[in-house]
Amino acid sequence: MKPFTRVLAPLGMLLLLAGCGGGDDAPEVPTANAGVDQTLQYGGTVTLDASGSSSPHTGATLSYTWTIASKPAGSAAELSSNSVAHPTFNVDMPGTYEFDLVVNDGTASSSHDRVVITATNPNPLAVATPQFNVLIGTTVSLDGSASLPPTGGSASALNYRWTLTSKPTGSLATIGGALNPAAGIFIDVEGTYTATLVVTYQDKTSAPLLVTITANRSNTAPIAKAGGPYTVERGQTLRLDGTGSSDADGDTLSYRWYLFSPGTSGPVPLLMPGASRLTLENALQGYNTATPTIKPDAVGSWSVYLVVYDGTSLSSVSATTITVTKRPDTPNTPPVADFFGNPRVSFFTPSYANEVELAKAVFSSGNSWDIDGTSLTGTGRRRYRWIGTPTGFTQNDLSAASSFSFTPTVTGDYTVEMTVNDGDADSAPVQRTFTARTGANRAPNPGIAVDASTVLVGGTGWFDARTSTDLDGDQLTYNWFLFDKPDGSTATLKFENVTRDDGAVLSNARAGVVTDKPGSYIVLLSVTDSHGVTSSPVTVYYGRVIAKAQNHAPVIERLSFNNDWSSTLRGNVHFNDSDQPYIVGSIEPMKFFVFNAVDPDRDALYYLWTLQQPAGSTLPAAGSADPSTFTPGVVPLFTLGVPTVPGTYEVTALVSDGVERSAPKTLRFNAVARANYPSLLLEDFYSAYPTNNYDQQISTGVTGLMGGPGFAGNVARPRAFPYWSEDYGAIFVTTDLAPAGGDVIVKNYRLTAFGGDYTITNLAVSTPVRTGAQVFSGKFIGLTNGQVIRRGESVNFSLAVTIPANVSAYIAGGNIGPDPDLLSSEPTNLAKGLSLTFSVAEKPGWTFEYRPYLN
Question: Mean of the pLDDT values across residues 304-308?
Fold first, then answer.
């Protein structure tokens, strides 16, 4: 041990000397103080505080450098600034956030100081990837294993529940492993699927987490992200940032920024302050890049929109806002009085209609503006005075008016002057002269339609202005402007005249663009009447077509009718079944649906329906006989009407994306007279719907319920097997209807045997599933298990819900537990799980199931 001691002694002396010597030469450095550690619930905004930092040098100015040393897994938190004394950040996840601070006083940098922000959560938190873009045939893995228990709890005690809340029409998708942290969905149909994850911890439940899955067949649509929201001072240049846009297929993106939200066509306002002198054509510099610039010239709220294109598909529109502020030291700018407002487009020079109808009230408060963003409405902000009026007109007093109106009683010119005030200064006055006469000219309105929203490169996209209107019947001049085209395109517009049925020629009423590059082509339109008055330059009228280098034809999965297994679509009407044809003269029209019309490129689809019908039938034709004529529509639905002639009907549908058509899908059905029905006919009397909209009759003795034929005159509606009805969406039974207890009749039906004998089997009533709800039960009245309905025989039967006496007090006492499987699309049903069912022995698969809704 001695040799070891001798080694340590000199070392200790050296350390002592190092600690004491050289002090006068050590530099004085600033001190960083990152603030006090904090503990709070997650979900808010935290402001960090470096104001306690200091410098040993009097008068020194500190600079700050913050970095995020650590944050919870899954957090996207970022500091609002890395170089200010009080940055903020959003606490988006529970856990620990640690921030490091270094300050510099211009001479030296401080040592590091750290502050710890601990975010707690009193309830569990569901965590999973919120969005997927996949191809059909993909199994999407839903992983909620990163979900968090309440602060201090153990993740092993979490319980998970995945629910598929929506899916595209026709999809058979279900969630596998719905009660596990990781679940899966096989994507079988194009469209959007939504799922929710809820996690529970003991008696605490998380908020639902929504997961959206977008499925495509061949190309995944890109996603536009316009960034923001942005804030900029008036007159300063702002650079927008769309670099967060993406394409799951890795395709190269092209960018288009607009001051309006572009669809296929339409009139749209520009969401920018009225004071701005910028126009649609000049506001966005580099509008076809990921990072364009804009120099807002008026205080207020602006909206900008980004669309990206991957060569095949357009993204959805991504919108963001720009808040334009005024520097506090900027002097006030007087407002500007104007009756018309600043034009939003510059491709034509506006000419306004100043004629007004004699003896008809005129309103014109103007469209004045203030670049400082001050409101010019309200008492004292607008002042009017007459400059001149025709002889014989009695001028109304304008001295106290905040808006301008008058009724011209004499032909001639009426001149008014308007001045506006922003609270500090008046505008220069402005005058407008109204010319009153009988048959005053009015401004025309553009209208624009697109022949087809999609074309192949080299094809012509056509825009049609025949829907433009002039209330005075004047001949219109059409002013077209090719506003946007793909990068590198040299396309120009060409025009066609249109001859109306009355022989009038509409010159240049159609404009076409021969596409030469894939991408978006947008035209703008204004119209001018024969008096030289133009349409308004404040609203933008536009049309858009997409040119594609290649196209994938759309596909129809199948046609169906209003009998799908859905509480909202199921009509329980079979009319393409040889054993269950449609009965002529029924009161319900037939509805046909295109199920899962898929366009692999996500192009807009156009629908064509055609109908073949028996001789003597005069139902309206479903669509044009010319397959090149399509009707655009959002809902692929065709309502045929009520056949009155027996025979075979055939409905055919096909769709077009503007370039190619799908293969046609056809559905045939037979219609027969009721006396010729071939099997067991189920009819619903709908006696549930008298004028009070309740589907019940009340009796404690169940007597007198079966009225005359049709149950007190109600019209029988044919129904089909398998029959399934769930009475959600209307109050059919309320617990206060039978305070003394008893049976409430909820539905009345009739079974009639045609073509043979039929046996009722498996007749049963299930039990409600909610705790305590077993006090409710159901019964069949007039129908028994094993009952045989002989050929030619009709049997009336009713469905009843039995309600015990004083059930309202029982419910009010909290005796009925929660619904264990409540879906967001369902109302709360006290009788959840109660159903009345039977089968038909001679017809495998012919089942009857009714689920009452007890409120």
Answer: 94
pLDDT for 636? 64
Q: Strand, helix or coil at 17? A: helix
Say how many C-beta atoms besides its own lie within 10 A of residue 102's C-beta.
Answer: 18
Strands lying side by side in the sheet with 382-388 = 355-357, 430-437, 412-420, 382-388
Lowest mean pLDDT among 14-28, 89-103, 118-132, 448-462: 14-28
Which residues, including other chains, have CB under 8 Å from residue 809's CB and lie 6 or more apart?
none
- Amino acid code (one letter) for 363: F
From CA 621, how far away is CA 612, in angstroms rounded?
Answer: 8
Instruction: Give dist(CA 852, CA 433) in Å, integer.
Output: 69
| Three-class DSSP labels, 246-294 | ECCCCCCCEEEEECCCCCCEEEEECCCCCCCCCCCCCCEECCCCCCCEE
Q: Is the model's pLDDT at 699 over the cut of 60?
A: no
Q: Write the DSSP assignment of 527-590 as a string of letters.
A: EE-TTSPBPPSSEEEEEEEEEESS----EEEEEEES--SSTTT------SBTTBPEETT-SSPE
The predicted-structure confidence for 728-750, as pLDDT tens digits, reads as follows 544 345 555 555 567 778 888 99
The pTM for the full model equals 0.59
> Which residues, in sequence order, are bridge partners of residue 185?
140, 175
Concatenating the DSSP letter of every residue in 760-805 gives EEEEEE----STTGGG-EEEEES--TT-EE-TT-EEEEEEEEEE-T
Residue 595: both structure tokens together = 């199920």
Residue 507 has pLDDT above 90, yes or no: yes
Range in 139-148, 407-416, 477-486 the model is least confident about: 139-148
293 by Cβ neighbours in 10 Å (0-12 / 13-18 / 19+) ranks as: middle
Of the candidates 637, 553, 454, the one whose C-alpha atom is nearest the C-alpha of residue 217 is 553
765 in Cβ contact with 836 (< 8 Å): yes
229 prior amide bond cis, ω within 30 = yes
Show the beta-strand stretches assigned E in 374-429.
Answer: 382-388, 405-406, 412-420
Closest CA to 253 of 312, 309, 318: 309
Phi, psi of 96, deg, nearest 5: -110, 130
Query: How far apart are the C-alpha atoms of 675 and 696, rounded to whole Å?
Result: 30
| pLDDT at residue 413 greater than cutoff 50 | yes
Element (H, E) at 840: strand 836-840
Q: How far apart are CA 430 and CA 57, in angstroms?
A: 61
Least confident of 99-108, 119-128, 129-138: 129-138
3-class state of residue 11 by DSSP: helix
Residue with the two structure tokens 């404040």 = 538
**Which of 386-395, 566-575, 591-600, 647-656 is predicted least confidently?**
566-575
Tell me if residue 666 falls in helix, strand or coil: strand
Closest CA to 217 of 183, 245, 184, 189: 189
Instruction: Tell me whether residue 755 is exposed, middle or buried, using C-beta atoms within 10 angstroms of its C-beta: 0 to 12, 13 to 18, 19 or more.
Output: middle
In 3D space, the residue among 640, 527, 531, 522 whose CA is nearest the CA of residue 588 turns out to be 640
Predicted confidence (pLDDT) per residue in 239-249, tens digit: 999 999 999 88
Which of these, 361, 362, 359, lies nearest to 409 by C-alpha position? Answer: 359
Closest CA to 570 of 317, 758, 308, 850: 850
| Region 810-830 average pLDDT | 76
**HSE, side-chain direction, 13 A CA sphere, residue 416:** 28
- Specify the pLDDT at position 272: 84
- Which pLDDT belongs to residue 736? 53
Tell me: pLDDT of 14 over 80: no
Which residue would you say has higher pLDDT here, 703 or 303? 303
Report the C-alpha dihedral over residues 817, 823, 827, 829, rounded to 10 degrees: -40
Chain centre to alpha carbon of residue 319: 13
Q: Which helix (H) or strand (E) holds 16?
A: helix 2-20
